[in-house]
Amino acid sequence: MVYRAEDTLIIYGLTPGLIDSAPIQKSLTDFCKKKKSMVSSDRFNLIMFLKNGPNYLENFTLNPDHIPIALKSLEEDLVRGNISAGIFLAIKLIIEVFKTISERSFHLVIILDSQSNDIPNDKVPVLINLINKVKEMPLVIDMISINTGNLFDGSKFKKIAEKSGGDLYSIKKVKELSSILNILAEKKEVSAFSAFEESVTHISEENFPFYENFAEIPLDIEEMRTCSICYQKDINLVQCTKCKTYAHKNCWALWSKTVHFGIPNVFRCHICFNLLKLDKDLVEMVHSGILIYEEPQLEDVQKYIDDIKVINVENYIQSLEAQEGPKVVQIEYPDINLTVKDDDITIIIDDE
Ligand SMILES: [Zn+2]
Ligand SMILES: [Zn+2]
Fold it and tell me: What is the per-residue pLDDT across 187-217, written as a single tens digit (0 to 9) for each?
């Protein structure tokens, strides 16, 4: 069986001093190692709650050993988990990855206890709305609550987990944690497909504007440059916002037809996977064989498109790994903010 590589983000929302943390940290370490042994390009991240705000690893890491290291180094300064702030931050971090790397699925695993902050009522519809969109990346949220005898109402947590296709698991004893995590480690998308064919993620049409909003418009260049697809020199090229590769709009419009992101005018750069978009009308015309720009001719471009050597995602992921391991970064609580625009289709996660 071939598994799709996954980026897992753990929200460690346990209340300090309530439960012995050593067996929990061991279970989480085993969970990451098991996932890693199943798919070598799986990556990990961790959110913990400290007095000044949530801490997390700057980048998802291929090395599961960084999870217990971060857990141990931050443990002393933990405060009670603000789970809803953690979920917003997690989704923001996951969107950043989705924008620049293809062929992954995302798994948010939240460990909480009966004293974790409940999700405020006004945040529930905002979260549900957001999850309805981001679950198509795909992102699944699973939660495990460790109940220590206090009265615990997990109904809002459960509602949110289920909305994403995940679940809330309630356990009474810490030793039950490892068997739940074992099940979650095996719960994976069993679809494998090539790096640029993501239409299998079934982005529904009502969510097109949300995903289109993540994609960047290639920059206009008014200098003589060589197109990276058809190799013709031209002054009418555009440039990838991330890797600075040049291409004709015609060339990228035809490439977008070949790669099936799921939204016709949205595609990933053939060099760096960055999510890009071109004008809808231009793309539609090129796809139906009509040219706005005379050059290059479509039949010529098609030959070049067929010849594009796609870079290997796994090698690319390896190249992103920081040599000295990921840094722990911290943001302040007020920085996590969701702005839902009036038309209710664009959600901006504000980190100004
Ligand atoms: Zn070209
Ligand atoms: Zn690029």
Answer: 665 454 555 655 455 788 899 989 998 899 9
Question: Which-ligand-closest: CA of 228?
Answer: 1
Q: What is the number of the ligand closest to the CA of 216?
A: 2
CA–centroid distance, 250 to ligand 1, in Å, is 7
CA of 190 to the centre of ligand 2 (A): 28
How close is the Cα of 272 to the center of ligand 1, in Å?
17
Q: Can you list the domains of the chain with their CATH numbers?
A: 5-194+317-350 (3.40.50.410), 215-311 (3.30.40)
Tell me the CA–centroid distance for residue 247 and ligand 2, in Å: 10
Instruction: List, for residues 30-76, the tens digit of each pLDDT value.
Output: 999 999 998 889 999 999 999 888 999 999 999 999 999 999 999 89
Q: How far is CA 271 from the centre of its chain?
A: 19
Alpha helices in the chain (DSSP H): 21-38, 66-74, 83-100, 123-134, 155-163, 177-186, 208-214, 249-259, 280-287, 298-307, 313-320
pLDDT in tens, 307-332: 887 778 888 888 888 877 788 888 77
Distance from the CA of 281 to the center of ligand 1, in angstroms? 19
Q: Quick check: pTM over 0.85?
A: yes
Kindly tell me the sign of the dihedral angle through the C-alpha atoms of 78, 96, 166, 187. negative
Residue 212 CA to ligand 1 center (angstroms) comes to 23
